[in-house]
Design goal:
alpha/beta, eight-stranded mixed beta sheet, 20 strands
Length: about 350
Amino acid sequence: MTEMRKVLVIYTGGTIGMMMEEESQSLIPIDFEKIFQHIPVLESMNVEIDHAQMDEIIDSSDMNPHFWIKLVEIIEKSYLEYDGFVVLHGSDTMAYTASMLSFMLENLNKPVILTGSQLPLGMVRSDGRENFISAVEIASAYEDDTPIVPEVCVYFENQLFRGNRTSKFNAEHFDAFISGNYPALADVGVHIKYNKVYIRKPAYKALKAHKNLSNAVGILKLFPGIPLSLVKNTLAQKELEIVILESFGAGNAPTNKDFLSLIEEAGRNGKTILNVSQCKSGEVEMGRYATSKKLLELGVISGRDMTTEAALTKSMYLLGEGYSGSDLRKLLQKSLRGEMSL
């Protein structure tokens, strides 16, 4: 018989942790002390499951850096006691949290699997039960005393994705997430098929939890006819040190002189502008087209195939660590946790 593994389930809030109260017919949080009553099959798994709950349960739309720090503190405090972690989280900002945890948890050697559901766990057709069961199984999956997936991941509707490669793209169907620029780490059917060639290897170093984050980051999403006043006001915000430019296609942007002069001025004022694509698949290739060549000449740096979620959280992490100038620009263009292809 294989060794029994220990998994800590951390409930942060979200749809998956709700059930229908018979008397009021309203949704209330599940009592995770009674999780085996809600999902009896868990008792037949060779896993010891403990649970923790955030001091404040929030809707994921209220996610913020302070909450991320509290979540990391729970994982850090419990890290040596458990073989893996499952984070139950609302789906709306799950990709942001998964991305941020990947940067905050340096030298991660254990699975941290985020999952949730589109329907509450207490509802008959809920996708939460399968998501929960599979997430626990993946978090406890070891071979030769080594975790199969020692990284932060999102598990949803039969697929396991690298956390910092995911985006939510569907608010209605059970397959809510996409990883447009990186293959699934596992496909779950009758068996769990791990795509091991794409999974990061353990670091075999002590976990280092980073808990300094900066929110001096903004996002400027381009659209046809964008007012120059909007561009100017965003780039002129004194508190912003990094502006993520969500450009078209392979990194393209307007070529009119007024727009480009605002980009140039922002660079002179010390702003770092990071170019990512609005597309869910593909990458920024600065200079491929004339419409992005000028950005390159003005010092805009390429986010390559990073998601907006990864670009934002990576920026907050690096600024929180005190990086600036050329060091900041260099690290933004380097893959730190597998968040970008080089």
